[in-house]
Known about the structure:
Blueprint: H1 2-18, H2 22-38, H3 46-72, H4 85-127
Helix pairs in contact: 1-2, 1-4, 2-3, 3-4
Keywords: Membrane, Transmembrane, Transmembrane helix
Transmembrane segments: 25-44, 51-72, 92-113
Amino acid sequence: YFLALLLGQAALVVGRFVIMDFWGGFLTFAALLMGALVISGGTIESQYCLYYVLMCLVIAIFDIILCVERGLHVKYSLLSRRAPLMFNVASVIFLLSPMIELAATALAAYIFLDAQEAEHRWLMTRYGTEASTRSDLGGYGRTQPDRPGFSPFRGECHHLGA
């Protein structure tokens, strides 16, 4: 699914440059490059995944605003038979863009959270104790060697200088 969303973003980049939305095309291309970094090397890089989530979310918010603005302030309706072909192509691109960006945000956030949870479980089993995996919290204190207890200060107070 992730690759399909990246291909959808690539199509959006091309479409945005065709309809002369250079700024939107550049931002979507930057998100596409970050998405490519997520899967570079044959594995999922969770840190790049977080950056990809944030980029897609911000772009999706801007695209939703652009879509609402386009719906309110244009001569034709979003998809009109009377409108020129390029207007309808732009409308389709402006409608698909927030959907693809939000889907990419949701999927990448799920991948990021799953990777963080898997890493946490791996670290707990590798470096943790039995108590750190929360299977036996009561036995944690009994495994420590006996140390002398805490004793508060019992001496006299002396003042320096008079």
